[in-house]
Amino acid sequence: MMPRRQPLLNTRQISVAAILGGLSLVTEAFGLSLPGYLPGVNFNLVGAYLSIATMAAGPLGGIIVTILDSFTSSVGFYGLPFYWPHVFFLALFYKRIYAMKSTATKLVGYWIVTAVALFIQYWGWFFLYVYVFKFATTIWPLAVYNFVGVIPYATFLAIYALIPGVVLVTAPNFVRPTWNFPYLKWVAAASIILSAIAVASQAGL
Amino acid sequence: MFLGTILDTSPCLGQACVVPGLKLDANTQTAGAVVMIIIVLALAWYGNRKWRSPSQSMIGAAPA
Q1: Domains in chain A, start-ordered, CATH in brackets?
Q2: Do B13 and A49 make contact, defined as CB atoms within 8 angstroms?
Q3: Which of A20, A175, A204, B15 gives A53 a disulfide partner, CB atoms 3.0 to 4.6 angstroms apart?
Q4: Does the CB of A135 have a partner CB in chain B at under 8 Å?
């Protein structure tokens, strides 16, 4: 008997990813952002769209959002692969978080996984800022500013986790992880390793 | 060269991103961001009600 072929995304998941990707594209194109200024921090909600799409439609949903975002993003398509370690890492742990019984545990788990995913993502962006945009000669001033300074990292974390966390506990059917992604563990590892190699090349060690 | 063309496609590359000829002021940008939050929450609310899993929608259904 022939094995039954499963589509990578169903209609609902494609719709959710397309809508959130569209919002992301419009957000970047019109510069729609919350009030506030902090060097190196973007106060728009692309991180929230990306997270919700990954929760509802899996890694491909998150990737669709990043592709649409890149058309109007100020870093263009250079930024595209550096979102993906976050997408894969969040997807890797999301089903376990979703299955947690207690709302408080679920929220804490979600924030912790997002915090780690964002920490991993940051290093790829440091590579981009040093190698492509020449904002610094090595990654270390950027790492100190964002991580030791705490506030830039915490601000981005809130953008990535606050609204998606609210959606997770108030609209669980919407973000139910019915998706599947082949070899997710290995793809996540590969994207993180590639990002680490890229950033190591700019570490000046 | 092809790769460079693809990478440099964004009209906003390396600059504050605005659609040419349509520069929004800060208040309008903030209002737009708030509208975006409302759209996302509305989408989640609607999706939570409408898009239930097949197993849930079958609960209580009459046998065929």
Answers
A1: 11-200 (1.10.1760)
A2: no
A3: A20
A4: no
